[in-house]
Amino acid sequence: MRKIGINMRSVVDIPDEEYIKIISQLGFSATFTDTLTEKEHLKLADLFARYGIAYETLHAPFGHINDIWFDTDEGIQMESELLGCIDKCALAGVPVAVMHLSSGVTPPDVTDIGRRRFENIIEYAQKKNVCIAFENQRKLANISWALEYHGADENVGFCWDCGHESCFTPGRVYMPLFGDRLVCLHIHDNSGIYNQDDHMLPFDGKVNFDAFADYIVKYNYTGTLMLEVFKDKSLAYKNLTPEQYLQKAFEAADKLRKMVDKI
Q1: Which residue of 61, 144, 210, 240 is 20 to 30 Å from 173, comparing CA positions?
Q2: Residue pair 246/21 in contact by the 8 Å Cβ criterion
Q3: Taking the model in full, what pTM does it have?
């Protein structure tokens, strides 16, 4: 049976071990985290193993990702943070690092120094046996460069974020462009309002999940259907307890799994 997963800390008002226990009991079998301290990664990796949860991806830092395209100290620091993310993947046995290439409505253009930095990061990740999955944001040019220029690199792929596609780039469809490079998913819903990244549960917003399921099958993706959702980013879940929210999250993920399997 195809695995379904959910990001760590989709609700933040329960302890980590209790959260992991709940998602395991519900039927989730995979997760991912943000970039944390080495101690936190090792502790979580141990808990995931104890409860039968696969630690599939680690989301790289992106707080000042635009700096990587500039010849500044901040750009050097951003590169260092991404290299550190690769180290933490290797330390905790996480096979994939998900990376943004830019952020914001008016991100910088692709530059030579930025390209050199990402090439260095990709080469470093290859040595560490870590795959980099570049995630769609607002700008097509940089992800096109990353996936086309590095087409021969087996450790470079695509993370399809269907929620970002809906609210950041309405009208643009990424899977026909990069579906054959798909490594992992970030699944969430939103209101369809431009730039409103709600990270709602599937089927609670305007994302077309019939089309989503069709693309998953068309491009022969057999990996985990991974939710990236947050209870507190939408008022829709304000009256739910953490347990009720996670139950609803599982039901949405399971519904999506059944849609894909039916096709």
Answers
A1: 61
A2: no
A3: 0.97
E strand residue ranges, the chain: 4-6, 30-34, 54-59, 96-99, 131-135, 156-161, 182-186, 225-227
Extract the runs of DSSP E, i.e. beta strands, from 1-155.
4-6, 30-34, 54-59, 96-99, 131-135
Q: Of all helices (H) and strands (E), which one includes residue 166? A: helix 162-168
| CB < 8 Å & 24+ apart, contacts of 109-116 | 109/69, 109/141, 110/69, 110/141, 110/142, 110/145, 111/69, 111/70, 113/69, 113/70, 113/71, 113/75, 114/68, 114/69, 114/70, 114/75, 115/145, 115/149
pLDDT tens sequence across 121-169? 999 999 999 999 999 999 999 999 999 888 778 899 999 999 999 999 9
CA 259, CA 69: separation in Å to the nearest integer?
40
H or E stretch covering 240: none
Residue 162: DSSP 8-state: H
